[in-house]
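agent> fetching stored inputs for the nicotinamide-adenine-dinucleotide docking request
agent> found them:
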Amino acid sequence: MEIKKIAVIGSGTMGNGIAHVFAMNDFQVYLVDTSEKLIDKAILLIANNLDRMLKKDLITIDIKQNTLENISPTIGISKLPDNIDLVIEAIYENKIAKLSLFNELQEIIKKDSIFASNTSSISITELALNSRPEQFIGMHFMNPVPMMKLVEIIRGFSTSQETFDIIFELSKKIGKVPVEVNDYPGFISNRILMPMINEAIFALYEGVAKAEDIDTVMKLGMNYPMGPLTLADFIGLDVCLNIMEVLFNGFNDSKYRPCPLLKKMVAAGKLGRKSGSGFFIY
Ligand SMILES: NC(=O)c1ccc[n+]([C@@H]2O[C@H](COP(=O)([O-])OP(=O)(O)OC[C@H]3O[C@@H](n4cnc5c(N)ncnc54)[C@H](O)[C@@H]3O)[C@@H](O)[C@H]2O)c1
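agent> prediction call returned; pasting tokens
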């Protein structure tokens, strides 16, 4: 099966980056969101990101033009043609919303196409249940998608070898480095990253060191480009808490319990960069 037409559902942070990368690699992309305003915003952002690449001589004006021409802005999934080969879902991190979307897509999109989810933490096996489990897979891109090489390719319980092979090869075709991961909470990326961030928050909570100093240790001592508390503010403390809860509940293991300070900050609306303050002020 050759993948030519791709539908990216959700044109937010991740969806517009995913559409950008596939369109730049000559795939025909339908970028879907719920309103014209959101779609226009996403297309403008992609055009601005292409301009930045153009200025840095990473692409030519023809590539920019071609990339934009390869994207069909689409309002609502009902406007999609049925002959889409691959659907990549990148809507809100909400299991009920994702399940209901895949239910609808199951009726609209031809039966032999592949469904993928960009979820950061929801089980691929559970998302696949009511649509097409053998042709369902996780494609976990990293933010910002055009810059970051990694894609975690997550095999659900029933994902077929054929589906896995197609998606693994496709990821290489768009210049990414795919890594095979089985479907367990947090996959690999968040299973390792989030407990590290949570431990940094525990260190702050227990008064081991100040926030700036915890970040300095990890930056200068471990060569991390960003300290864990700065990174938590960047990701959003609500997102961090949500993923820790997925790990805690998914493994039934107290080693993943979210730090009480993280819970308290989320309750207080201190969500990091997006709310103006978190561990640091913005
Ligand atoms: N932001 C990150 O750093 C990051 C990294 C990796 C994975 N993810 C995952 O990617 C997914 C998307 O995250 P995001 O940060 O891009 O979210 P976002 O909030 O920026 O964008 C979500 C978009 O989906 C749209 N949407 C919601 N329901 C829709 C529907 N039924 N049909 C069409 N569009 C719909 C919204 O209007 C919005 O524009 C989540 O599952 C998240 O966990 C996020």
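agent> quick read of the result: The radius of gyration is 20 Å.
agent> awaiting further instructions
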